[in-house]
User: Fold this.
Amino acid sequence: MDIEKELPMALRAAYLSLHRNSDACFTEFDVTADQFVLMCALQDEKALTQRELAVRITSDPSTVRAMLVLLEDRGLVRRQPHPTDSRAKTVALTATGKRRLKKLIKVGQPIRDCMFGVLSQAESKKLVSLLGKVADSLKDYPSPTAS
Amino acid sequence: MDIEKELPMALRAAYLSLHRNSDACFTEFDVTADQFVLMCALQDEKALTQRELAVRITSDPSTVRAMLVLLEDRGLVRRQPHPTDSRAKTVALTATGKRRLKKLIKVGQPIRDCMFGVLSQAESKKLVSLLGKVADSLKDYPSPTAS
DNA sequence: TATTGTTATACTCTATAACTATA
DNA sequence: TATAGTTATAGAGTATAACAATA
Assistant:
């Protein structure tokens, strides 16, 4: 098979198996894999604006808002007025959100163990590095609308 | 940062940048990136049943059906009774579908060029191999409902 | 009995465009 | 003028469960 087709398909297969297994694993905690990623971003950086959050999880402001509304309904995140910019809102995990996130990290561990189980330390690092190169290469790819 | 968190996030970032750039690139041809993957599967294997197709693109029978209905509406695929198993249907690209797919492969080429531009031949092969390992490791991961 | 596909249903992510309020 | 966020809207993928027809 052509490597040109193989790499995109391999990327897709690997990502989807991670994503779907995570989704299935998180279902009973009423959180999706994408919502988990968003919550992880909030764990790292204490309080982000919605705009910053969109950049962080490589998504769209309106998509982020839709996700935040769902998480807010479940009491996992809180949005508050920004201290200096009154247009903006800061987003942070609630106490419940922090507890939930810890739980999710724990129950998702076997999945990550499974992935790392087939890779050596060196291979893991190599894989992260190569994936980073690929993602970077496409980061500023000209969109058709920009022409 | 922890490699345990880094690999899943790197995988996500790389896949999403590929997927979204592809989607944007295919928009004017009225086909999504996921539909493109499905059409590619039909190019390789002449005629598949819906079930086989679901396995091939690692998706769900009902998801596949929803996608096929959309592609059928656009005149890109055709479903016909299976010659020997009258429960099943075979799915194949129409002539229009084949032409459209060729076009999509062509217009998507710059994206793949962009990815491969930052990788050596050896790195590309290594990446495909490592991604394959990861996907395989999760292929038969026990779902929570199976317990 | 098991399997193929359909149907109904519901949820989530995605994205665009028009809008407001503020910087 | 530019930016942060909202709203309305539409489309697409996802998955479960119940079902009919067939193997």
